[in-house]
Every structure is written in structure tokens, then in C-alpha cells.
Write a structure and sequence with these properties.
With 374 residues, the protein is α+β, with helices and mostly antiparallel strands. The chain is 14% helix and 29% strand. The strands form nine sheets. A five-stranded antiparallel sheet has the order 15-19-18-17-16, with no helix packed on it. It has a four-stranded antiparallel sheet with strand order 3-4-5-6, with no helix packed on it. A hairpin with a 4-residue loop joins strand 18 and strand 19. The longest helix is centred in the last third of the chain and has 18 residues. It is globular.
Length: 374
């Protein structure tokens, strides 16, 4: 049954708002002209292609991107206690939602809701956590980040045993043009394509700024183009592939013992993934490289593939980024060639056990096990 968002829950002072789909071209399509002014979260859903999730007036909706039709998704047992604040995707079929449980202050809970089974699971509940102060959530590299709390950017690993919520630490040394990630606690819009996080800050008396966030080094760099005033950003996916990093068959010819890349091949590989030609590989470019390596394994698909890539990227920067003093968060040409010489692709991570569902999958990987060195 297609339902309208309940108008009775919208305050008289809240402006009516429309939902639009902005494409790569300037064309903008009106999806719905209902009252969406109390929307607190919009997110894409990898496992439900062609739909987006919306949290409006503390209720959860699925919207069809083709015709704008939507329906409410009520979790089994009803919605969690509190007022819904920020929300983000929980791959492959769900979402994380922050609920404010305190009238004053930022205390609140974090829940995971599956949009297909309608099962809700507590992530950080009744711990005096700060999720009630988070206006924006973002799932990135296995962590849920919360923006909006005055104490800073908070995060939690939803698959950890203790599920402890922490505040991201300040960066020690900032390069020219960088800001601390903690300074973006009041960002107006956040999104991640699975490999890179972006944060938009609207300014009343100066230019709006779109930042590329390095969660590994807790820094952010402003991009050159000024964005419009935004309240939400979502990455668009098609056929399970990220818009910003299309997966290719570039690495297929180097797979197997007899096809190990030569030194000159490695030079070509580096040049291929150095997409901006600056002589270094950032996290997006390294993610593009590992994406093309792992996609040769037919047994790694969907969220398992994305998790393996994310783990490999994290391990790459942990072990390969040797020049952390002058160029943190970047793999230069010498580092790339030194550590990938004599490698054989692929030697893929093992999926431990047969998962009951996507959320129970455990993927273990290290850079050392991703490639075979001689």
C-alpha cells in the first residue's frame, strides 16, 4: 500500500520540501511533491536496486526512483523509542538510524533496521551514548560515523563485540589545505561511495565547501568546486558498482602464476590508477586498483566484495604508506612499485564459514594474503 507521510506530525513552522534526483547531467527530475520538510535522512540501498530510503517525521519510507512511489516500512514490534535524527545505509538491505532519547542534550541510541525483513537490532542502546545529537550518519569502511554532536565526530564499529562509541581524535599534523576531520562535526551533508567519504558545509557569509575526508588520518581536504547549498548527499549505484569508481577488467591479464606483471607492467599499472596524474595514489585510486583485482574472484560478490576491498585498502595504507611524515594518506610511485614487485594476482581472502545472511559474513584479509610475493 502506498502511503503519504503523515502531515499531522509536521510542525506548522517546517517548510514543505520536495525530493529530487540530480543526475550527472544538469537535468533534475521531480520525484515527489509531498511534504518532506521533516526529512532527517536519505540514503541509497545497494541490495534494493532502484530505491532509496527516507526517514521523515521519525518514520521510515522506501521510495521508487523511477516513479516516486513510496511506502512506509514499520519495523517488527514498532519503531524504537525516541525521535529519529540522522540515518544512513546499512549494507546490503538496511539502515542505521540515530534516535534522540533525551529532551535536552545529545543522549540517544543507534539502531539497525532491515528494510526487507523489518527486523530491528540495537547497536548502541542504553549506554548513555551521544547518538541523539547526530543530525547526519554515514557508514564508511565498516564504521558508522555520526555528525552533529558538539563533542565532535563520533563513530562505532557495529560488528565489534563491545560496540563502543568513541569520538574521533584530532589529527596531529595538518598539511597545507587540510582541516581536522573533527572540525566537520557540524557538516550539513555527508556521503560515502564505500571508498571515499565526502562532507559538505554550507556557509551563510562565505562560499560553501565540499570536503574529501580521510578517515584514516582524520583529515579533510576542500575540493576546488563550490557545491550548492545541500542538506543531503547520496551516492548512486547501478548494477552494484559505485558511481565514482567503476570496476574494470584491467587486472585480468595479470592474474595467475604465468601472468605475473613485469616491472614495466607495474609502471603501466601505476600510471593507469594514478587517475589525476599527480604521481601518487590516494585512497580512491587504491580502492579502484583493489576493486579490479578482487572482481576476478567470482565467489566474492555484493557486500562481501566491498568489505574485502575496504579491508585491503586499509591494510595497504597501514603497511605500504611508508612516507607518513611528508605525504600521509598517499602511496607514491616508489612505494607502489617496491611492494608489488614479484606479486601474483590473485590470492584472495577466505570467507570463513557459510553465512546465514549478509550481516553474519566474516571476511578476513591482509595485504600479505592478498598477493603472493616471491
Amino acid at each position: 500500500m502506498i502511503r503519504r507521510p503523515p502531515r499531522s506530525t509536521l510542525s506548522s513552522s517546517s517548510a514543505a520540501s520536495d525530493v529530487y534526483k540530480r543526475q550527472v547531467s544538469p537535468e533534475v527530475t521531480l520525484l515527489s511533491d509531498e511534504d518532506w520538510g521533516n526529512t532527517t535522512g536519505v540514503f541509497s540501498i545497494k541490495g534494493i536496486e532502484g530505491f532509496i530510503g527516507i526517514v521523515c517525521s521519525s518514520k521510515l519510507y522506501l521510495m521508487n526512483l523511477e516513479d516516486g512511489k513510496y511506502e512506509e516500512v514499520v519495523p517488527d514490534g514498532g519503531y524504537p523509542n525516541g525521535s529519529a535524527k540522522g540515518a544512513c545505509a546499512a549494507p546490503p538491505n538496511g539502515c542505521y538510524v540515530a534516535y534522540s532519547t533525551s529532551k535536552f542534550g545529545g543522549r540517544g541510541d543507534l539502531w539497525k533496521i532491515d528494510l526487507l525483513t523489518k527486523i530491528k537490532e540495537p547497536v548502541s542502546v542504553d549506554q548513555g551514548a551521544m547518538w541523539g545529537g547526530c543530525d547526519h550518519l554515514n557508514y564508511h569502511a565498516g564504521q558508522v560515523y555520526g555528525f552533529g554532536h558538539s563533542d565532535g565526530v563520533i563513530k562505532v564499529n557495529p560488528k565489534s563485540i563491545d560496540k563502543k562509541t568513541t569520538v574521533t581524535s584530532n589529527a596531529n599534523d595538518l598539511m597545507e589545505g587540510e582541516v581536522a576531520m573533527s572540525d566537520l562535526y557540524n557538516a550539513n551533508a555527508i556521503c560515502s561511495d564505500g571508498f571515499v567519504m565526502f562532507a559538505a558545509v554550507n556557509n551563510n557569509f562565505s562560499d560553501n565547501v565540499l570536503y574529501k575526508v580521510d578517515t584514516h588520518n582524520h583529515t579533510a581536504t576542500a575540493l576546488a568546486v563550490e557545491p550548492p547549498t545541500m542538506q543531503a548527499m547520496v551516492p548512486l549505484y547501478g548494477s552494484g558498482r559505485a558511481l565514482l569508481i567503476p570496476r574494470t577488467d584491467n587486472m585480468r591479464k595479470y592474474t595467475g602464476e604465468d601472468s605475473r606483471p613485469s616491472d614495466s607492467d607495474l609502471e603501466d599499472i601505476f600510471a593507469l590508477y594514478d587517475k589525476d596524474g599527480n604521481g601518487t595514489l590516494d585512497r580512491a585510486e587504491v580502492a579502484s586498483f583493489w576493486s579490479d583485482v578482487f572482481r576476478q574472484n567470482d565467489k566474492l560478490v555484493g557486500p562481501y566484495l566491498d568489505e574485502a576491498i575496504s579491508a585491503a585498502v586499509a591494510e595497504t595504507f597501514e603497511h605500504f604508506d611508508t612516507d607518513k611524515e611528508t605525504s600521509p594518506g598517499l602511496i607514491d610511485r616508489a612505494e607502489f612499485l617496491q611492494h608489488l614487485k614479484g606479486t601474483t594476482f590473485p590470492n584472495f581472502p577466505k570467507v570463513v564459514g557459510e553465512p546465514a545472511n549478509d550481516t553474519d559474513t566474516v571476511v578476513t584479509t591482509t595485504v600479505a594474503s592478498n598477493v603472493t610475493q616471491k
